[in-house]
Amino acid sequence: MSIQDLSKSNISYVTNCPSEYTGRIIKLALACIQPKQQDLLKPLEKLASETKISKDQLYEILSSYTAIIRHFIHTDQRDFVSNMVEIGYPSEFVERLPFLNNKEELLHTFFAPYKAYFMNINIIKWRIDISLLNSTLLNKLAPNILISIQLKNGQSYTIELNHKAFHILRFNVALALKEMKNLSQNTALAKFINK
After folding, report:
1. Whether 141 contacts 131, CB under 8 Å
2. pLDDT digits (tens, 9 = 90+) for 35-47
3. What is the pLDDT of residue 161?
4. Which contacts qualify for 116-120: CB closer than 8 Å, 24 or more apart?
5. What pLDDT does residue 141 have?
6. pLDDT of 43-60, one tens digit each?
7. Neighbouring residues of 169: CB distance < 8 A, sequence distance ≥ 6
8. Do residues 71 and 64 lie in contact, with contact meaning Cβ atoms separated by under 8 Å?
9. How confident is the model at residue 114, as a pLDDT?
């Protein structure tokens, strides 16, 4: 879900949420964005029982804050504030967001540990290794795919796959990327949490 997908009811739920619960909801939204899976059902149920907010409204508020935080991470502060006001959030609400002036701290605290996993890869190359055979060999050798991964620290790894294993790998990577795209565009975080 992006902030452009937020409806007027989402904006109303978020702006009318009691301020004493906003911090806890933002922490849950940050946990939703984390690459490491966390079980958020119990904290959400506890928060719903402590407040007069229905579970559906709480899911809408949580999905809205998740979209807001994602937008905040991917834009600079000036554009973020103008986009939020343009969508319909009051400027007083935007100015009270606890992470507004703490982008570096937010990135360092919540996302820096996972950045190392993706930033270590320097080069990925692949090629098809075809062995030329003469007619005297009885067994034909199937072509193999060689994948070479070089890390920034200089370490290099080479993986040899047959064509079936390579296609399975390629298919699973494409499937994972498709699922990540679908999750980022999902308008109902409640569906994800209830699974």
Report:
1. yes
2. 666 677 788 788 8
3. 83
4. 119/152, 120/151, 120/152, 120/153
5. 60
6. 878 888 887 777 888 888
7. 161
8. no
9. 59
Distance CA 146, CA 136 (A): 26
In whole angstroms, what is the distance from residue 7 CA to residue 9 CA? Answer: 5
**Dihedral sign of CA atoms 53, 55, 61, 62 in order:** positive
Q: Are 146 and 129 in contact (CB under 8 A)?
A: yes
Residue 136: strand, helix, or coil: coil
Nearest to 189 by CA among 76, 78, 18, 25: 25
Query: Tokens 């899911």 belong to which residue?
Result: 59
Long-range CB pairs of 49-56 (<8 Å, 24+ gap) are: 50/21, 51/18, 51/21, 53/17, 53/21, 55/190, 56/190
Residue at 114: amino acid letter: Y
pLDDT below 70 — which residues of the chain? Answer: 1-7, 35-38, 111-119, 130-142, 183-195
Buried b (16+ CB within 10 A) or exposed e, 140-151: eeeebbeeebee
What's the chain's length in residues?
Answer: 195
Residue 190's closest CA among 67, 69, 62?
62
Q: What is the SS3 assignment for 52-101?
A: CCCHHHHHHHHHHHHHHHHHHHHCCHHHHHHHHHHHCCCHHHHHCCCCCC
C-alpha–C-alpha distance, residues 183 and 192, integer Å: 8
* Domain extent listing, the chain: 3-115, 120-177
